[in-house]
Write a structure and sequence with these properties.
By secondary structure, this protein is an alpha/beta fold. It is built from seven helices and twelve strands. The chain has a ten-stranded mixed sheet, sandwiched between helices. The protein has a two-stranded antiparallel ribbon with strand order 5-6. The protein is globular, with a radius of gyration of 17 Å.
């Protein structure tokens, strides 16, 4: 069973830590919340596995659905926190209710600042209507600061210049800009309504370039169909929430830029 080493309320969210831990420098917070193609969730899950990251805490709130994650007979909060050397991973297979996302984003960034995180990385999908026909997926990045812009360009990633970003990562990016925190949203072309491990693999490769932390993505490619089938039910549960956030806006560029 987990013992609570430390806990604190940040706004309406309770952050629980099971043990003391420190992040090496430069440190990265990876946020994995359900989004288009479950790209973020698949990438974060694979990262946890490959890095052998340890579960060090979790996030709960009265405003989240009454859900407990049961793993090896032990209940965990619906949002879990993992750590390994320079990486802190916030992972959830459940999409928080739309009205709680702004408060959650602010709480996450507050926690990141208290933990001395240097860079926030979000890896998500960029839905395209013809994904079935596309083999060579394009990737882009959106930075929150000049320093984040330099990091993305030095990694050879193309800047996402015009378009819409919808959902938790849009809010996170705007709030990071306001706080002058270094945040990068990585976007790779993906399915909207089907799990997309290939897009997750591409984003993880970009994360490795940015951070210098090698993550083997061979398994994501080799077991793409198995992962797709396994994650299909999760995708079905997430889609209504994504529709409520109007994710379809990401298909089209704005009329004026």
């Amino acid at each position: 069973m987990f013992n609570v080493y430390r806990e604190e309320w940040i706004g309406d969210f309770r952050f629980i830590e099971y043990e003391e831990f420190q992040l090496d420098k430069p440190s990265y917070l990876v946020v994995g919340l359900p989004d288009a193609g479950l790209v973020s969730v698949i990438a974060a899950s694979h990262m946890i596995k490959k890095l052998e990251a340890k579960e060090v805490g979790g996030i709960d709130s009265y405003y989240l659905p009454p859900v407990a994650i049961i793993h090896q007979g032990v209940p965990r909060p619906p949002i879990r926190i993992f750590a390994k050397e320079r990486v802190l991973i916030v992972y959830s297979e459940m999409l928080p209710p739309t009205n709680t996302i702004p408060a959650l984003v602010n709480a996450l960034l507050d926690y990141a600042m208290r933990r001395g995180v240097d860079n926030v990385i979000c890896m998500t999908g960029l839905p395209i209507p013809n994904r079935f026909e596309v083999e060579n997926l394009r990737s882009f990045f959106i930075p929150s600061t000049k320093r984040a812009l330099e990091i993305g360009k030095n990694a050879g990633i193309q800047l996402f210049e015009n378009g819409y970003l919808v959902g938790p990562y849009a809010l996170l990016l705007k709030e990071a800009m306001r706080r002058r925190m270094n945040a990068i949203v990585l976007l790779t072309e993906s399915f909207m309504e089907f799990p997309d491990p290939e897009a997750s693999a591409k984003n993880l490769e970009l994360f490795s370039k940015i951070s210098g932390i090698g993550i083997d993505v061979k398994e994501l490619h080799e077991q793409a169909e198995v992962i797709r089938v396994r994650a299909r039910e999760h995708m079905k549960r997430v889609l209504p929430g994504l529709a409520q956030m109007r994710k379809e806006y990401e298909y089209a560029p704005p009329l004026y830029t």
